[in-house]
Amino acid sequence: MSALLWGLIALPLAVGALLTAAGRYADCAAPVVAVACATATFGLAVAVAFRHPTAEAPLLENLPVRLAVDGLSGLMVVTVAAVTTVVLIFSVGDIGHGESRARFFGLMLLFSGSMLTTVTAATLPVLMMAWEVMGATSWALIGYWWRDPARGRAANTAFLTTRAADLGLYLAAGAALASGQANSLALSELPHTADPWLSAITAGVIVAALGKSAQLPFSFWLSRAMQGPSPVSALLHSATMVVAGAYLLLRLEPLLTASGWGGPVVAWTGAATAVLLGLVAVAQNDLKQLLAASSCAQIGFMVLAAGTGAVTGGAAQLMAHAAAKSLAFLVAGVWLSTLDAKTLPALRGAARRHRTAGLAFTVSALTLAGVPPLSLWAAKDLLLAGALAQSSWLYAVGLAAGVISAMYAVKALWFVWRRAPVADGRRPTGSEALPLVLLALACIGLAVLAVPPVREAVARVLGTTTEPVPVAWEFVLSGALALIASAVVWIRGTPTMGALWKDWLHLEPGVRRLLVRPTDRLARALAAFDDRVVDRTVDSAAHGVLALARWTDRRIEKDVDAAVEGVASATRTLGRWARRPQGGQLHQYLAQAVAAFTALAIALVFVR
Amino acid sequence: MNLDPMLLLAAALFSIGLFGALTQQSIVMLMMGLELMLGGIIVAAAAIWHYITPDTAEGQVLVVLAVTVMAVEMAVGFAVVTALFRAREVDVTDLATELRQ
């Protein structure tokens, strides 16, 4: 049983590590090996999802590595493995023969393997390891074309941002250990700690999750992450890195509930991200940037779900979004490589040019827009039912975010369906077209989430049957809003937005100004302080000691030496004097005695 | 005659000898002083034996021993002086100082 689970994470990690390490030598074999490995992983994932095994191995004293698959993990591993397989099949065509394919496929496998480890981890240490490997491989993948310095810088930005937020997990782990109530650091034990540790754990987990999921205020890194290859974006935005934060919050939803304040904070952050980043997406003119902002917004919904305890809705949103978003990115990648067009005006008519890609993109965009009966419509209502149970304001904000998501999705659609002469590019290859079809079918197929029996089955699998479920008018309302918004945008276009929205709310410049530059300045000031004060103090202390030593040598030592010499020579002189009367000549002794007695006598005479 | 004049004689001999030993620079004269001191001691020892314990023999033995010691000592002394004089024409103590230190 547990062998399945070990295999599930060991297979992609091992193959990925081997391919990455082999480098150029494995370029020819890499695509085949990687796709085969991903397919096998997908098979394992399905098996694991049905069997729900657990596995345990010793790691540290009282801190075992524990992997477990429950309902949520089962859905996640299937999603991750499926999207990985599809994206890798697409990459066979997209990452051509000229590229270093072994490195690409190896890193992608490592990336998804670490995500699989993250979603099956049952204890914090193994979760943190997987979390870190994911961050490192995301850096290597975003900076895949490392010869371009801009891409390297983008990778650094993305990595440093997420890595800074990751420190929250260390805070959480430290607080859990300090509390003494979660000694094995199992995720299920965390909610049972007492304040103040509970608050520290919650805060750390929230910060780490928001950073990974590019929620406000960390969203800007996702914009920079677009510098990587399209398959990377497709995987990173749909089923790995970015949803890892949302997954963590869904997994630790009991913790948010236990802390009391965590739920509302997370819910409102998710809602705010969904609205604001949705507006950012509406403002974008570059398709990939639009999709990136939309990822932030859609994941905002999952975070909102985690905050309100609507785990079913969050998981449904996660799966549906994974299919739709990976599809959208793959289509964007197809157009980028076939038409060499990225901006929306340049993409006019792209959908008419390649019908397969165009129809796939339409399915994906309508899914993102929340148009009934597609999957995200139902998933959104599931999670908004939880929001409505909490507060009607939150529900209203969630609905507004849904309308905004319809706006940006339809904006992209409108551009690609324009009648416009399109520059002739190459046609997508079979390995590029197949994943698009598969994902489009998945998007359509996941629409069954709206059907109550299916929904209840999902809730049963997740063990969340007690959550609020949406009633009919909510479905009707959100569907109608999405349709109306889509129609309005299709006819009237989107309003022109200011530079604030185009530039992702100025988050990155803001962070640079508020955090990076002060940190740099502080570092420089400290370095200068170190050089000019600490170092110089040490140096001058040494110089001072040397000078003092020289002065002592010149002055005092000479005197001391002279004194010693003086004592010695005086002693010698005294010795010479003392030897002089002791000549061994008796007659001289007599003379001396006579002289002495004479002197004594005279003294006696005079003194008396 | 009784003990007192004899002891006076011995003391006088000893004092004259000591004065000679202390004041003379010539080695020969110095040794004469030593002779006189020993002579005084012999006289004192003999007088004390004769007047105080005439019926024992230890005093006589002591006197004979002292005379013998004096003779041996003088023989050695004069031999050294003679050798010194022959080697370096030295006859005063101030010049015979190479054994110092």
Structure at a glance:
Chain A is mainly alpha-helical and 608 residues long. In chain A, 76% of the residues lie in helices and 2% in strands.
Major sheet summary line of chain B: none
Which structural class best describes the helix and strand composition of chain B?
Answer: mainly alpha
| Total DSSP E strands of chain B | 0
Largest interface: A-B, 7 and 10 residues
Number of helices of chain B: 3
Q: Which percent band covers the strand fraction of chain B?
A: under 5%
Cα separation of the termini of chain B: 50 Å
Largest sheet of chain A: 2 strands, antiparallel
Strand ordering within the main sheet of chain A: 1-2
Shape of chain A: elongated
- How confident is the prediction overall: mean pLDDT of chain A? 89
The proportion of residues forming helix of chain A, as a percent range, comes to over 70%
The helix count of chain A comes to: 25
Distance between the termini of chain A: 125 Å
The percent range for strand residues of chain A is under 5%
Poorly predicted tracts of residues of chain A: none
Shape, principal axes of CA atoms of chain B: elongated
Oligomer type: heterodimer
The arrangement of helices and strands of chain A along the chain is HHEEHHHHHHHHHHHHHHHHHHHHHHH
Mean pLDDT of chain B: 89
Describe what you observe in this structure.
The complex is a heterodimer of chains A (608) and B (101). Chain A has 608 residues and is mainly alpha-helical. Chain A is built from 25 helices and two strands. In chain A, helix 5 runs antiparallel to helix 6, helix 16 runs parallel beside helix 19 and helix 17 runs antiparallel to helix 18. Chain A starts with a helix and ends with a helix. Chain B is 77% helix and 0% strand. Chains A and B meet through helix 25 of A and helix 1 of B.
